[in-house]
Amino acid sequence: MSSKCPICLTNKISFVQELVNTDIQTNVYRCESCDLDFLDTWDNVEYVKSLYEGDKYIFTHNVGCDDKSNLKFNEYDKRYDFIKGTLGKNKTLLEIGCGDGTFLDMIRSDVKVAEGVELSPPQVKKVRENGYTCYDVMIDEMEPSQRYDIVCMFALLEHVPNIGDFLQNLKKYVHEQSHIYIEVPNLNNALASAYDISNFRDFYYRPIHLYYFTPKSLVKLLNKYGFDADIHTMQQASLTNHFHWMYNKHGQANASSMTSVDLPIEIMDKLPMYEILDKVDDYYRELCEKQMMGDLLSAHAVLAK
């Protein structure tokens, strides 16, 4: 375990808080120079890998919302829009951290080759059953069979131990014209940075997320290891979810839902209050993203020239 900053590798850091309900004592630190929060377990490879053994970690999107039509933010649609300009029938794509293969299913017909990397055994099994090549080890534990035109890493970098080594190994998987797409949580999100809600911070910091990036720290990390990147933010959670955190000290069942309960969409469309909230929510999301305070950071990276 290390209290050195994973980016600049110095001890010029400050203590943020200790995590609760973890298998081992885990502290959150902040490097002001790099604008990064991180866990001191970031270099404990065996411990991090143990978090994904068996069925310990099976992430499912949009839990708590039976009617997906009520969602204002669909991460899969956003990801598709993010990368669609570089898709092509002659392209090869690798998704590192492919989960259950939902995104691979979306882009399968748009590329020549779609493959995945995943550590969770139940999800590896599912992806392979759906006909994909899926590697079940970390990328530094294997040699790539090819260099891919597109590499996607959605909700992945925050989970990777020894992130510098990971990015060095990533270069073996790409070529000079490759496009790399990254999505990570944004430490500068409104609930943590503007409203500074302590209950949200207790919820936000968790053992599986080793790093908490801001636009500055993500660019600094990628530049250090030979990548250029454009960064923007996306607002995932709704205005009503933020109201929940501010006044109830917890979020909605589904953060992307526009209301605190999932009403049938045909009823909500007839409610004047919902129409007003819906328009205010659109404006609120626009402001959060404009001020780089959206929940998620998205990066389009390429090898530096």
Throw out a few tags for this protein.
alpha/beta, Rossmann fold, 2 domains, 305 residues, 11 strands, single chain
Beta-strand segment tally: 11
Q: Residue-averaged pLDDT, rounded?
A: 89
Q: How many domain units?
A: 2
What is the CATH class designation of the largest domain? Alpha Beta
The biggest sheet amounts to:
7 strands, mixed
User: What are the segments in which pLDDT stays under 50 over at least 5 consecutive residues?
Assistant: 62-67
- CATH homologous superfamily label of the largest domain: Vaccinia Virus protein VP39
| Computed structural class | alpha/beta
Strand order of the largest sheet: 6-5-4-7-8-11-10
The helicity comes to 25-40%
Report the order of strands and helices.
EEEHHEHEHEEHEHHEHEHHHE
Radius of gyration: 19 Å
CATH architecture descriptor of the largest domain: 3-Layer(aba) Sandwich
| Distance between the ends | 35 Å
Instruction: Indicate the proportion of strand residues.
Output: 15-25%
List the helices and strands and how they pair.
Elements: E1 14-18, E2 27-31, E3 36-39, H1 45-50, H2 75-83, E4 88-96, H3 102-107, E5 111-117, H4 121-129, E6 134-135, E7 148-154, H5 163-170, E8 174-185, H6 190-194, H7 198-204, E9 211-212, H8 215-224, E10 227-234, H9 239-248, H10 265-268, H11 272-290, E11 296-303
Parallel strand pairs: 4-5, 4-7, 5-6, 7-8
Antiparallel strand pairs: 1-2, 2-3, 3-9, 8-11, 10-11
